[in-house]
């Protein structure tokens, strides 16, 4: 492989190349772009590779829509911690006269959102959220393991190609006794690193924190790091010195299990943990490190993804 | 097959049976339920069956997120015609003090949505919408064909299992000369009927109309029917006398091509048409007509879906 060009990590040049190659389809929404057939094929191949690696674990696969009950988001503290990221869904509940006014304002280029009202739903911010209520009650011996692949929404518009408002995560969610859950998280951290290194990505893992809002959030972030509750696997994609997180591991302890009354087989409150691969980000990392033409990727990477 | 029970078309009993069989996972949102592994496998198998049938057409597959630019929805007249179905995405843009107030109101059980503001996006109401801008300009000889499978949102909460707020559509979008587009639509109408009858579903096709809002909408619906712009393929799923649409065909004439400057190879304004399979609805129709255990489905249906 020839040495990377000096602008190897220029995000604007990367985006331009992705669009020129038909991998990314521009839309008017920053971080809301479309995926061309080759991009989407790579994304699905990586997901299938993860699922083959995890096949013996026997995870139950559930599928949820990209919306979630407003009451869930309220009760989980998401509006306390990440208000800047939420997507609240509003619709029109009026009669004829209000509908005419709405239509008129749209045509006049005036603002019209005060004619809407909230619905019972918000956009799903994390693929695993709808899973926890499913676990309510007493778990079987050994706990449970579920996997989901869902569209997530975060309101953080950006022209930077790895920063999406709407993206897919493949997540695994483990629930059980605290020691079972922590051991599972530790084992997957090693497995995730090996899986991504096997695809030729120069990944590293590190303690991390969620993007909590504001001053109080800074303390939450410090506490999360001190307790080592969140790890990320990172790889340079758009900057050599600010690597991009492509996989993250969260140990929630009793955060979800307390709220939904999830008890381990012995009766004590269970722990939960999850890990998620950012499917678009992994795809972008592969394209950045192996080039925009998958036919020319290294033989071992191709063998893993085209088995 | 034994005769259907007297309550064969009781929607509440159907939903209860779907949940008991683990096919549907209840959530607090009406029409926002989760899909168990068997349901999702059937849905993906039907989609793969459609794609095999259409393989020789050489459609280009594009993938878009479940959000779309607000400006697109405004300019396409969706707020004039279907305001009652929209999902407008709102988020929080405030500073510390407003965030504290938001958090306090959430904890006090008070309404908090006036602390949000609109974003640049809305939920995607139809899988084909993001495709039309991609066609802008002069088409190649013979026009173009694209396929998408996207999550759509419609705000119509209901306990009835075929009425979903968030669901997937497999769509094909054809753009070209008016005669090419109409012939393609007619051919697919026959093909869609044959494909669904081949899966043992007692389907019929009929002229249809979209659910336009209000009194003015009634006239739009009559006009759409008179011009035979919309057809549906329907099958009884939750009522014998009110069959459910599981596939629909829309001939938009110049509605999209005029807005996005799409011209046929000869230079004249192109026409567009689309057809979409409602993937959850087809899956529910198969479960209703062949029973909740796919292992016991008729041999020819299994052969088609498990090739």
CATH class annotation of the largest domain in chain A: Alpha Beta
Instruction: Note the run of SSEs of chain A as H and E.
Output: HEEHEEHHEHEEEEHEHEEHEEHH
Largest interface: A-B, 69 and 70 residues
CATH topology of the largest domain in chain A: BirA Bifunctional Protein, domain 2
Count of helices of chain A? 10
Give the CATH architecture of the largest domain in chain A.
2-Layer Sandwich
General shape of chain A: globular
| Beta fraction of chain A | 15-25%
Count of beta strands of chain A: 14
Strand order of the largest sheet of chain A: 3-8-9-14-12-11-10
Summarize the topology.
Two copies of one chain form a homodimer.
Chain A lengths: L10 H10 L3 E2 L8 E2 L1 H17 L6 E2 L5 E3 H6 L2 H4 L6 E4 L4 H13 L8 E7 L13 E2 L5 E10 L12 E11 L1 H20 L6 E4 L6 H13 L3 E6 L8 E10 L1 H6 L1 E2 L7 E8 H12 L8 H7 L2
Parallel strand pairs in A: 3-8, 7-13
Antiparallel strand pairs in A: 1-2, 4-6, 5-6, 8-9, 9-14, 10-11, 11-12, 12-14
Provide a descriptive summary of the structure in words.
Chains A, B: This is Archaeal seryl-tRNA synthetase-related sequence. Two copies of one chain form a homodimer. With 307 residues, the first copy, chain A, is of the alpha+beta class. Chain A folds into two domains: 11-68 and 125-305, BirA Bifunctional Protein, domain 2, CATH 3.30.930.10; 88-118, no CATH class. The first copy, chain A, has helices at residues 11-20, 37-53, 70-75, 78-81, 96-108, 178-197, 214-226, 255-260, 279-290, 299-305, and strands at 24-25, 34-35, 60-61, 67-69, 88-91, 117-123, 137-138, 144-153, 166-176, 204-207, 230-235, 244-253, 262-263, 271-278. The first copy, chain A, has a seven-stranded mixed sheet with strand order 3-8-9-14-12-11-10. In chain A, strands 4-6-5 form a three-stranded antiparallel sheet. A two-stranded antiparallel sheet of chain A has the order 1-2. In chain A, strand 1 and strand 2 (34-35) form a beta hairpin. In chain A, helix 2 (37-53) crosses helix 9. The radius of gyration of chain A is 21 Å and the shape is globular. Chains A and B meet through strand 2, helix 2, strand 3, strand 4 and helix 3 of A and strand 2, helix 2, strand 3, strand 4 and helix 3 of B.
């Amino acid at each position: 492989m020839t040495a990377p060009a000096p602008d190897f990590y220029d995000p604007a040049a990367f985006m331009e190349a992705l669009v020129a190659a038909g991998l990314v389809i521009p839309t008017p929404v920053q971080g809301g772009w479309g995926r061309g057939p080759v991009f989407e094929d790579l994304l699905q191949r990586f997901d299938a590779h993860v699922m083959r690696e995890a096949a013996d674990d026997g995870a139950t696969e559930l599928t949820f829509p990209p919306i979630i009950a407003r009451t869930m988001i309220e009760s989980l503290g998401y509006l306390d911690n990440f208000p800047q990221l939420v997507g609240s869904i509003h619709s029109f509940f009026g009669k004829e006269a209000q509908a005419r006014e709405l239509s008129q304002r749209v045509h006049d280029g005036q603002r019209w959102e005060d004619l809407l009202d909230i619905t019972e739903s918000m956009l799903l911010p994390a693929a695993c959220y709808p899973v926890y209520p499913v676990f309510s009650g007493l778990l079987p011996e050994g706990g449970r393991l579920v996997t989901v692949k869902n569209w997530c929404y975060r309101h953080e518009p950006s022209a930077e190609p790895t920063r999406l408002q709407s993206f897919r995560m493949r997540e695994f969610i483990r629930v059980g006794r605290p020691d079972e859950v922590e051991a599972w998280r530790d084992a997957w951290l090693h497995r995730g690193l090996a899986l991504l290194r096997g695809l030729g990505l120069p990944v590293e893992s590190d303690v991390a924190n969620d993007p909590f809002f504001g001053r109080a959030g800074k303390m939450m972030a410090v506490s999360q790091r001190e307790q080592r509750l969140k790890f990320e696997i990172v790889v340079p994609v758009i900057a050599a010195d600010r690597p991009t997180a492509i996989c993250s591991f969260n140990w929630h302890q009793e955060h979800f299990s307390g709220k939904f009354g999830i008890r381990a087989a012995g009766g004590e409150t269970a722990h939960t943990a999850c890990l998620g691969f950012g499917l678009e980000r992994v795809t972008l990392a592969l394209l950045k490190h192996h080039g925009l033409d998958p036919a020319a990727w290294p033989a071992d990477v191709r063998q893993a993804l085209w088995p």
